[in-house]
Amino acid sequence: MEYTLQSIDSAIPCEVTIDDDNGRYMLRNADTSGEIFNSASELTQWVQQHWNEQQFVNPEEFRQLVHHLQEFIEIE
Predict the structure, then answer these.
(1) Prediction pTM value
(2) How many whole angstroms separate alpha carbon 24 and alpha carbon 55?
(3) What's the confidence (pLDDT) of residue 5?
(4) Is the four-CA dihedral 53, 56, 58, 64 of positive or negative sign?
């Protein structure tokens, strides 16, 4: 699962990648820095603590991302 969100602070979009088959859980911030996690639940917690819908051009995309992340970790 890959998501791209357009931040209001940068022309470069934020990206979230959850690749359970290959054990890849990572994201890229608006400032192009990145974070790598050991699990989808760690990534989800980080997103909920550090990002909010006001940071993005389309707040609904952020809400959908959080919803999909929560669904994903429920079936993990």
Answers:
(1) 0.91
(2) 24
(3) 97
(4) negative
